[in-house]
Amino acid sequence: MQNCNQCGKCCIKYGNGGLSAAPEEIDWWQNHRPEIAKYVNKGKIWMDPISEEQLTVCPFLTVESQQKNMTTVTEPPKIKYSCSIYYDRPDDCKYYPVKIDEMIRDGCEMIEVRDLTDTRSAQVTLDRIMSDSRPASNDTT
Ligand code: SF4
Ligand code: SF4
After folding, report:
1. Is 83 in the pocket of ligand 1 (CB under 6 A)?
2. In angstroms, rounded to a whole number, what is the distance separating the alpha carbons of residues 104 and 110?
3. Is residue 85 over pLDDT 80?
4. How far is the CA of 89 from the centre of ligand 1 (A)?
5. Which of 31-40, 44-53, 130-139 has the lowest mean pLDDT?
6. Domain span including residue 138
7. Are residues 81 and 110 in the same domain?
8. How many structural domains does the chain have?
9. Hey, which of 9, 86, 104 would you mutate to test ligand 2's pocket, going by the most ligand atoms within 8 Å of its Cβ?
10. Domain match, 47 and 111 both
C-alpha cells in the first residue's frame, strides 16, 4: 500500500453524482463557504448553479501538474490532480478509500501488487494511512 499519488481517478469517478453530503455539511457550507454551497441543489452535490443539472465533473477538481511519460512517447502525460476545497471537502471525499475491494474496482493507485494477495494486511495498512481522515473500517476482509 502506498500513499495517494493524486491520480484523480476517485474524484473523476464519483464527482459526477456519486457523492453525497449530510445536511450538517451543507448547512456549514451555506454559513461559511457559500462558493461551495452554490453547487448544492435540493441536497445533491455537485449541481450546476445555473442549469440545476448534475455536473459531469467535480467543479473543485484541479490539475496540479502534468508530467511527460518518460518511458514511452505514446503514453499520455501523467496528470496530478488536487482539490481546491481540500479542507472543506465532503466527508465522502475525506473518507475515501475505505475498502480494498473498492480500491481494486476503482483502479486506485495506492494499491500495490502485494496488497492483492494479502487484502487483510492491506486493509490494516490502509486504515492506518487514513487514520487522520476517517474511523477505521470494521471489515478487514
Ligand atoms: S470535492 Fe475535492 S476530493 Fe471531492 S471529488 Fe471534488 S476534487 Fe475530489
Ligand atoms: S484513486 Fe487512489 S491514488 Fe488516485 S487520487 Fe484517489 S485515493 Fe489517490
Report:
1. yes
2. 9
3. yes
4. 6
5. 130-139
6. 97-141
7. no
8. 2
9. 9
10. no
The answer to whether residues 63 and 36 belong to one domain is yes
Mark whether 81 and 50 lie in a shared domain. yes
99, 123 in Cβ contact below 8 A?
A: yes
Same domain, residue pair 21 and 79: yes
Grid cell for residue 32 = 461559511
Angle CA(101)–CA(138)–CA(61) in degrees, nearest 5? 55
Nearest-angstrom CA–CA distance, 55 and 92: 17
Domain co-membership, 101 together with 84: no
Residues 4 and 24 in one domain: yes
| 83 and 119 fall within a common domain | no
Residue with CA at minimum distance from ligand 2 atom 8: 4
Which atom from ligand 1 is nearest to the alpha carbon of 15?
Answer: 5
CB 130 within 8 A of CB 116: no
Positive or negative, the CA dihedral 115, 120, 124, 126 is: positive
pTM value? Answer: 0.90
Tell me, what's the pLDDT at 140? Answer: 44
Q: Which of 3, 10, 14 for a ligand 2 pocket mutation test, highest count of atoms within 8 Å of Cβ?
A: 10
